[in-house]
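User: Some background: our group keeps a shared notebook of sequences we're curious about, and every so often someone picks one and asks for a predicted structure to add to the entry. Today it's my turn. The entry only has the sequence so far, pasted here. Could you supply the structure so I can complete it?
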Amino acid sequence: MKTRASLRAAAAIAITAAFVTPSFAQQTFGGNYCTVDCSGHKAGYDWAEKNQISDESDCSSNSQSFNEGCQTYIEDPNRGSDEDDDGNEIDD
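Assistant: Of course. Here's the predicted structure to add to the notebook entry:
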């Protein structure tokens, strides 16, 4: 049998989780999570497209999101870079 104290603690945790847990899904690009936005992924995809990159070893910058965007181009060169995976427009 649960005590009142443990029930209060459980309620406090649930209330805290409701305020801390985001109520929206995180943006993705090519199946990769974006940080603030997907502009780094877009930049990597656009660069790979412009330079006709076909080998993942060419996707090696200091930016993880840029590299993931580059790799997304290699995997799916017809997807485009203007929208995230949910169809939301990506700002430059």
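Suggested note for the entry: Residues 25-92 form one domain. The helical segments are 4-20, 39-50, 64-75.
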